[in-house]
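re the bet — no i am not wrong, look at it urself. input seq straight from the record:
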Amino acid sequence: MRLPESHPLLMALLKKFDLPRQEFYLVDVDPDDPARKTNRTWIHVNGLHERRADYEKNPERVNDTFKVTGENRKKTAAAILADALEPVHRLIRGKEGTALVDGWAEVLEKYGHWSMYRYLTEVAGLDTRTIYLVGTIQNLTSRLHLSFLHSFLSSALIDPRTKFWEIKGGTAQVFEGGEAIITVPFYGRQRRRHRARLLQLVRRRPQVGRLRRRGTLSVCPRRVQAVFGRRCEVFFTAKCQTQSWMRDHYAYGEASVLLPGQHTELFPDIPTSEGPLHFAGDHTSIKPAWIEGALESAVRSAMKVHTG
């Protein structure tokens, strides 16, 4: 798992247990010079097949398949998205203390009830074809109808220059031999027995998640072949384990993601204690799907238990 250096509680935990770590690379790099990004990842879309480095040099070839016109035709999807979010970033960038709080309050007031799709159309002024391009290349399609704040928070709390780490031997070492606070996921079949104020789950890749194990084992290799060619067949042994988070009884999806408006109307109630019962877990923080979010909620719950 990638561990952002900008997450202070997690970094302190790694230091406390003296866990060996190594840098995690978000993109492919030169083995002889890891500081140099090679961007040889394949983009396979709309019948085109090219390296990401080639796309960054000449975006028009891919962008034309989405029929993107105007000045965005010559921009990468990443650049288009960055330009679109820039007005909101300016509300908080470089601010501290009260000014930062006021900046985030303005973000919540203006866009707390917006979806990402609404923001990209009404504020950024992007047409549907350009939004399809950004959603596809930047892996944003499944989040377009969900809260704008969810995707924006990720871009605001983790700077593009942030260094990522991974633990040598696996993330499970963080929890070996120590104490743990168990949190209950309030999803799926149990939701009616507990709170009505629940998070909307994102089910990523539902077309794959709906498949049974045998179907998954046939579909996934075909999709790998579409990108890397049939030469990859020699590495497929048919001995593997599949995991569908959508079918998992304790997950029912990838992570907790809020709908438009729920950050202001729902989220404040999610971590609220009910008598002696306290709620923790990454889904009760503003950093869902991150270890840092789980740690923040653990600290909050522990303080609540000890201080009331």
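see?? The two ends are 34 Å apart (CA to CA). told u. also The beta strands are 3-4, 21-24, 29-30, 33-37, 42-45, 48-51, 164-167, 201-202, 255-256. so pay up
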